[in-house]
Each structure stands twice: as C-alpha cells, then as structure tokens.
Amino acid sequence: MAEVGRVAVRDPGALLPGFWAAVAVWLERPQVANKRLCGARLEARRSAALPRSEARGPWPSAVPGPEERGAGPGPGQGPHEGSPSPGPRAVPAQGTAPASELDSLWGDFSRSLVTSNGEMLAFLARSESAPQEDAPRDLDVVLRTIIPKTTPQGQLTAPRREMVVRDVLGGTLTFLPLEEDAEGNLKVKISNVYQIQLSRGRHEWFISVLIFCPERWHSDGIVYPKPIWLGKELLARLAKWSVENKKSEFTSTLSLVSVVKYSKLYQELKEKYKEMVKVWPEVTDPEKFVYEDVAIATYLLILWEEERAEWGVTKKQSFVDLGCGNGLLVHILRRAGHPGRGIDVRRRRIWAMFGPETQLEEGAVTPEDKSLFPDVDWLIGNHSDELTPWIPVIAARSSYHCRFFVLPCCFFDFVGKYPRRQSQKTQYREYLDFIKEVGLTCGFHVEEDCLRIPSTKRVCLVGMSRTYPPDAEISLDEKRTRYIHSRRRPGGPLPKEPSHPPPKGQDWTGPRHGPRAQEAGPEPGPAARGAGAQAEGLWLSGFQPRETVERVRNCSALPRDFIDRVVLQVARLLLGRKQPSTGGDSQDTSVKPWNPGGSLSLAEVASEMDKETLQRLKRECGGLQTLLRNRHQVFSVLNGRVCLRDWREEQLQRKTRPELRRGPGTEAFKTRPCWFFMHHPDGCALPAASCPFAHGPGELQPAQSTRRAQQLL
User: Fold this and answer.
1) At 16, which helix (H) or strand (E)?
2) Is the model's pTM score more than 0.90?
C-alpha cells in the first residue's frame, strides 16, 4: 500500500466536522470533482461489523441501516451536523434485490478478509485514531453505481459498481470496486482499492489518499483517474470543502429522475439542437438559453416517462408552458411527441423559426377562472416571474389531475414583489420555501430538485400528486382562497400550516386514464368554491401581468434635456476636483493647458444630486451608473468611480494596441459633435484634425446609415 497524497487542514475548533460532509460529496456527487462523470446512484446501505483477525466460525451478517430501520443516526453514524445524509432519493431500487445483494457481497468479502486477505483487513482498520482491536468497529457499507458521462459517440465507459465502507471511529472511507469473475459473480477488484483517511497531528488534521496496490492500479481516466489526480486534485477539493463546513440549503442534483437516462437523453438532444446556437435571432446569450432549455426539456421528458411507467399508461402527457419566452422548451417537448402549447405576453422573433407544429400564443395569463386548463396534464413555469406563485393555484383549480413544474427565478408574491420575512435564510431559499408553501396549501405533495443548467437559480419544485381525496375539493379550495387573501398585505399574519399530507401509501392522485380516474367524479366548477372565492374576475385584485411592450429602462429613453443636465452637473463636479494641467509630461509649449478633472465615486456624485433626479434615475436599470456609461464620449466609469475621459490617452492606446483601432475614429468619424469642444472650459484636448468628433457644425458628417439611405434614393 502507498500514500499518494496528504494535505494538512487546520481547524480552530479541533473537530473538523466538515470532513464527513466533504467525503459525502465525493460519495454521492462525484461529478462535482470529476467532470467526466455524470453522477452516482446509491443503491443500498447497511451497517456491518469489521471482522477481527482472530475470529473463526460464523460471521456477523449485515443489518439494516438506520434509514431502513426508521431510526435516527446510530453511534457509528457520525456525531457531527456535517455527517453525510443517507444519500439522495435518486432512483430507488425495486424490491429488496440491491439490499440482499449487498448482504451477499459484504458477507463473501468479510470472510475473505480473515481466511485469505489479512493485508486488506489491516488496510480497512488502518487509522492513527483507531480504537483497540477488541473494541467494536461499526461500519456503514454502501453499494453504489458510478455513471460516466455520455457523449454523441456513446458513453465514455460502462457504469461501474462499488462497495464503499465508511468507518467513522477510524476516520476512513474505503472504496472497493467490483468486477465480474469468469463465472459472472461480483467480487472486489483488489487492484483499484483506495482509501480516504482522516488523521490527527499535534496541531492540525491531515487528509490522505492511500492505494492498496499501487503497482497494479489501472487508470481508465474516467471512473478511475490516475493516482496523481487523487493525490492532488481530489485532496485539494476535500481539504477546501472540509474547512468550509457548509451544509447545503438544497437537495441533491437530479434526485427525482434516473441519472443514467438523463445523461443519455441530454446528449442526444444537445446534438440535435446545437445548430440553434448559430442561428439564434434574440439578443440573449444563445449558449446559455439553448442548452438550458435542452436540459429542462430532458428533465421533464425523463420525469414524464417514469410517471407513465409508474401509472402503467402509454399516452404522453399534455402541457402548457405559462410565460414560455423564446418558446424553445415548447418546441423540444412538442417534437418529442407531447401535445402542448406555450403562452407569453410578448411574441419573440425566434417563434417564426419553429414552424406551425409548435403552438405558441401571444397573450397575457391572469389568475382568474377564464385562465384554467381542465384538459391539461402539466403546467410549466420556467422563469415565469409574476405567474410563479399562481401556477400551483391554477393547476389545482384546473382539474384534480393537473400537475405543475416551476423553476423560480425572480421573486414575486401573488401581487407585486415578494417581501422578505426571514433574515436567517437567503432570499432565494426563503422564496423557494414560499412557493413550496403555496403548493402544499393548494393540496400538492411538493418535491424539490436541482437541475443541471447554466444558472445560479436551478432549483425546481414539482407537484405530482395531491394530499387529499377528490371529494375534499370544495373545502380545499376554500382554504386556498383564504391563504391567497392572507397574502394581500405584506407583513400581515402568515396563514396556518397546511394540513398534514396523508400517510404514505394513501396518495389519491392517479392518471386521468387509469382506474382511479373514474373514482374522482366530476370536477367542481367555480361556483362550488368557498364563499370568499370570486366567481368572475381576478382571484386577487391588484395583479398586473407584464406589459405587452417591454419598456426600455437603460436610460436611453429619458428626455434629452434631462440627460444633458445630469451630464453637465457631473462634469462640473469632476472639473472642480483638480487644477488645470498641461498635457502630461510633454515639454512641448504648443500643447495648451487642459483640465482633466478629478475622480469621484458614484456615491459621492449621487450625494450632490437633488432627490427628484435620483428618484428618476432609480427607476432605470443601473440608474446613475448606466447613464454615465452610456455617455462614453464624456465619462470613464470603472470599479465604481467616474472621471472625465481623456481622449489623448485613448489616442495613445490606439497607436500601441491595434485591436483598439476600430472605434469612433473609423466609420463614425465626425458623425457626432464633440462634447468637450462645446462644454469643457479648455475646449477639446485634441486638435480638430485628430479628434474623432466634430468641432463645430462645419465638420459634422452624416451617419453611415444616412449615407446609405441617400445612395438608394
């Protein structure tokens, strides 16, 4: 055996509870460190005992782990808050086959430890902090499958299975790869056994990686990296995660779908729609939006496929995407065979590229009885802004069998912006909890998952089933109405917690085409709702959908006289901060004195402005900073500070850096008046011949677009 890497970690508390959270990431989400992996599936978990070298006769059989006994963590499960959880929900194994398989694998392996593999037994028990040999050594044994990524050419390599042995008292996590022998039986692949070990020095902790048989180690570069990678890259990440000791606020990624299916389908769709990046007609980033919608579509297609398998139906689910935006998600789902449509308040240019088979509608969706979808299986809210909290309500009132998927982004309440209430949470976590509360109050079992998308806000909420039977619809809708109206006044009392969901096994939702569809009876209409519900009109007054025409808020639509006044005011403030100077260090007496002014922070500039001007600027995106940056000819804004732009320096940079030569000095030459010539006390710092802007009306040239128009006449 050999140590391939060791890193020292200092922990002021001398506890290092983050170590177990760190190794849990490598156990449950190895793709975070190894980018060639798609993920891992934990199939079974058992508690076991470390065999003693002098033992003979019957071996202790594996016993159910704490999560399968329904008990809390045992003494060997790790006393720290940072200890790894039992594992992601991911894809639960059917029946007890994986559990019994793990029993058999561990039983065979533990027998071999004494009968023929004493060195491996010593390797498992290796730890500076290990207890005496006679003391009990409780282990946590996990059976997992490592899933490599899929490429257009196929999967990088086949999924590999491992037993992982966690010894909390000994401070070790040992990985035992499995391979098939000639008879097709699984056995431990001794050559690729390795261990992550935590040991204690006098003043610091050490995390090490040890390989049992370094001379026989086989690296495929994917599932089994080279030893140098384990000793450097992996150790560096584990050390960093250990001292961060951060417990994630969110669930594991792709915990509700099969990671294997997701990886395969995502690569297929990515290859199919990659050409969209080249022809993207919108101003948004095509790399982000195309691949994000491909990932969301992949997730929904796998989720719906597994739902059909669970319900025993073949008919593909219908959907409506509320606030569909560019419509690409609708296009992908439609081409996958799911009937559906998208609705958005504004038509996008890209819609014309999809063709008539992709049904996209321009129109506002408001929370009222006219905006129900009784024949739709799923409502989708992908960054649906002000509609996000209403989607669970619309789904609940559309039909008893309507489900929802929302991916929250901007923080909206039922009316207006969402008001923060809990400072101990991040705003994002608090808003997700609010949307989950809405779904629970509407009568849904709400599940949370993290998507693999290029976005910081990637947590989705899924309402797949109901917590109540169909005959309780009227009373539940009264409860929904009370809850919605309780949110009318920000800061008012929160509603009571929603009623507890039924016990496991009493899920009243079934497929509309399945045997339980007939038991549901007719859907209650609007008149059957509680007395507080409105039969017509908005469900809550004050709701405003987005405007049909998006208002420009980059300061460009502000009145010209207002912009000119602000520019002059800021310029005078800057000019008053520095005395006139000659042109740099030049000794040329022909260079006239020119005052470049001083530098001020944006906060200092804002403090000199009147309240009315500031309020007007705050209504624009970026406010004062955006206005000053738009006036590129006059100001330079960098790192929160503003100064007058010195065109002498600009000219010098263009001479020394060829990539900067294109600019106002080429096709835009003399097409705009020189602000400094007109307003600066010393005039323009450049002579008229070299200034890219016009010194007076006589130099002003028509813009290139105007010249082209004149040529066509």
Assistant:
1) none
2) no
Q: What is the DSSP letter of 657?
A: -
CB 277 within 8 A of CB 457: no
Burial class (CB in 10 A: 0-12, 13-18, 19+), 459: buried
Q: Using an 8 Å Cβ cutoff, are 554 and 630 in contact?
A: yes
3-state SS, residue 259 = helix
Helices (H), 359-459: 391-398, 427-441
Amino acid of residue 606? A
Measuring CA to CA, which residue among 532, 713, 567 is closest to residue 645?
567
**Is residue 528 very low, low, confident or very high in pLDDT (cuts 50, 70, 90)?**
very low
Q: How many CA atoms lie within 13 A of 163 on its CB side?
A: 29
CA distances (Å), origin 500, targets 364, 467, 576, 713: 35, 8, 67, 75
CATH number assigned to the domain with residue range 259-487, chosen from the 4 options 3.40.640.10, 2.60.40.10, 3.30.450.20, 3.40.50.150 = 3.40.50.150
Token pair 């997730």 is found at: 299
Report d(CA 313, CA 102) in Å as an integer: 33
Q: Angle 101-96-150 (CA atoms, 0-180°, nearest 5)?
A: 70
How close are the terminal C-alpha atoms of the chain, in Å? Answer: 85
In the chain, what are the domain boundaries? Answer: 2-50+97-243, 259-487, 560-576+595-657+667-699
Predicted confidence (pLDDT) per residue in 76-99, tens digit: 333 333 333 333 333 334 445 678
- CA pair distance 335, 357, nearest whole angstrom: 8
